[in-house]
């Protein structure tokens, strides 16, 4: 065995060894979603620090942050609320039949 404890290169290419073709540690869509959420959090954090007076941002930086947030949050799931007239309840009738 060579000095330093290294193993000699005796294996070479072997059928079935190594990663399979097309292997990725994370699916690319999942990885993209994680990266986008991290970047969105960074932008929001910087804007909050600016609002609280901790850091100063130029008008150009604020504008760029707004554009990036609009793009990233437009893909976020949205919640739709439906209400009745003047924001009130919507009457709902439920008919329950037993022994049918």
Shape: flat
Q: Note the total helix count.
A: 2
Helix content range of the residues, please?
25-40%
Low-confidence parts? none
Order of helices and strands: HH
| N-C termini distance | 82 Å
Q: Report on the biggest sheet.
A: none
Structural class: mainly alpha
Beta-strand segment tally: 0
Estimate the strand proportion.
Answer: under 5%
Radius of gyration: 28 Å
Mean pLDDT comes to 78
Quick structural overview:
The chain is an all-alpha fold and 100 residues long.
State the main characteristics.
100 residues, mainly alpha, 2 helices, flat
Structure description:
The structure is a single chain. The chain has helices at 28-51, 59-73. With 100 residues, it is mainly α. It has a domain at 26-75. Helix 1 runs antiparallel to helix 2.
Describe the secondary-structure layout.
Blueprint (H helix, E strand, L loop, with lengths): L27 H24 L7 H15 L27
Helix pairs in contact: 1-2
